[in-house]
Amino acid sequence: MNLLAANDLNLWRGELHVLRGLSFGVDSGRCLQITGINGSGKSTLLRALAGLLPLESGTISWRGHDTRRDPHAFHGELAWLGHGTGLKGDLSAHENLRYSAGLRRDFGTADIDAVLASVGFPHSDGRLARQMSAGQQRRVALARVLLLDCALWLLDEPTSNLDAQGQHMFGQILSTHLELGGAAVVATHWPLALAPTRIEALELQ
Amino acid sequence: MNSASPKSVSAHRAGWLLAQRDLRLGLRRPGEWLQPLVFFVVVTTLFPLATDPQMSRLRDIAPGALWVAALLSSLLALELLFREDGQDGSLEQLAVSGLPLSWLLLAKTAVHWLLTGLPLVLVAPLVATALGAPLAAIPSVMGSLLLGSIALSLIGAVGAALTLGLRRGGVLLALLVLPLAVPVLIFGARATALAIALEPIAAPMDLLGAIAVLAATLAPLAAAAAVRISLEE
Fold first, then answer.
1. Which residue of A152, B18, B47, B182 has the fewest C-beta atoms within 10 A of its own C-beta?
2. Kind plus residue range of the DSSP H or E element containing B77
3. What contacts A175, CB < 8 A, 6 or more positions away?
């Protein structure tokens, strides 16, 4: 049984039939990479998977249970990163993580330092989020994904604004997540630095 | 199934943390929540200037002036409640956190009231005195504003959640919230009028309290549903 399974998804955005009978499954330790031209529905698909968009028809199941029937159990194991980083401009990286990931998981200051180090963000950096560059904000947002310690990652363009070294860092944290038995669905144009056996590709038309 | 991971945080604590975050953000930019307060003070002090400055006349218009200003000030403040969280993706994070969204929104609304509603109650003695209310009426005026502002923040939260996805939602927000806020206005102004006349205010206060309790029960649920709809945009 697939960890995450989508069956015959259909979704309209206004007059546009964006998802047409889409089916796929993602197993533990695997990453589904969604590609496609701009406007092909990558974000729509991810938002629908996360439960932010209602489906016209079709089912999404997590560990065999329909995610629409039991959203709380599904969301409890979901780390979501959309276009918005969800960071507050007037809080530092540390405060942002404590107040966003801290709503869901219990961890200490040392854990925050550790994840900031693994995303290549200097943890002594006390600047407010609005003073950071877009790439640095992305890194902090990825640090939140790590802190949430969830089985499923749904990431929409996680590496936008990241430099080459940042792309590499993302490949590393993603492969660690997969090695630990996690699953991920990632929409990105960039080739993912993962072992080919871990990746499955899905191109949206 | 490890949906309840050992490191999970209780919903209660999550709401508390979110409230702490909003309070900290609010204190870092006092300009935002001071604006509705200044608006309230300026509007109410304009009345003595624009009308006959006889104390007896002022006393007649005081309840209306006080409550219309409080209502408009709370409308002005609603823009601060969810807008930024909606734009930066924080609200999305809350919606898929697996925590009860209505509870989280109640925590946010409580802090919002603390920063924009409570200050109105605290300056009420000053404003009411300027409008000719006798000293003995001040505690009752403050009490009515306390209940009324709580109700207004909660009712407003539903409107703010509904207009989240709109770029210029300000006018629509006012049109949505004002009809719902009319009972608060009526009973609040009535309580204030009775207080200024030094008569018992129990009846309108009971009704104000009932509205506040009803709003506290239903508004978070409605706001959560509205936020989910707004996030579908």
1. B182
2. helix B55-88
3. A193, A194, A195, A198
